[in-house]
Amino acid sequence: MQLKITFAAIIFMSAGNFPGKWCRKVGKILVVDNQFGVRRLLVETLLEDLHEIQMAENAEEALLLFLVFKPNLILMDMNIINGIEILEKIRVLDRLVPVIMMTDYGDTHNMEQAKELGILYYMDKPFDLFELRERVKKIFNSSGISTQG
């Protein structure tokens, strides 16, 4: 029985679920999107790079998790209810946290507002997951957060 528990613990740790010597977490990312499938896809993709990730479905969850989780990066769907308003509230709390905005339709007015609020990137859905991972690595490299797992 002890061998099975130890083997399960090794599998658990090697899957990136235990921050330690063998699988150090890289960055803390908050994913905000009203579509569960999109949130899940982003989480699974970014977990490959050993990031610690929290998901929010709406503005209220996003603000709460922002305060509690203290992410190094936010990936936010602009189309959630009050997407610009939540970005404004986040900027009151932290002017420097990097934000990537995502949307499935172009809205130049909201895009301009988001740029004025200091987003780093604006990505149209569907987006290239490899491009997203590269942008995340670039953000963490420029902020001094290691991207080596």
Structure report:
- Helix content is 49%, strand content 16%.
- The chain has one domain: Response regulator (Rossmann fold).
- With 149 residues, the protein is of the alpha/beta class.
- Mean pLDDT is 81; it is low at 1-21.
- The longest helix is centred in the first third of the chain and has 16 residues, at 2-17.
- The chain has a 5-stranded parallel beta sheet, sandwiched between helices.
- The protein has 6 helices and 5 strands.
Low-confidence stretches: 1-21
Number of helices: 6
| Fourth CATH level, the homologous superfamily | Response regulator
| CATH top level assignment | Alpha Beta
Q: Briefly note the structural class of the backbone.
A: alpha/beta
Q: What's the quaternary structure here?
A: single chain
CATH topology descriptor: Rossmann fold
CATH architecture annotation: 3-Layer(aba) Sandwich
Distance between the termini: 31 Å
Specify the helix fraction band. 40-55%
Widest sheet, order of strands: 2-1-3-4-5
**SSE succession:** HEHEHEHEHEH
* Total beta strands: 5
Q: Give a quick account of the main beta sheet: strands, pairing sense, barrel closure.
A: 5 strands, parallel
Total number of domains: 1
**Computed CA radius of gyration, to the nearest angstrom:** 16 Å
Strand content: 15-25%
**Mean pLDDT level:** 81
Shape: globular
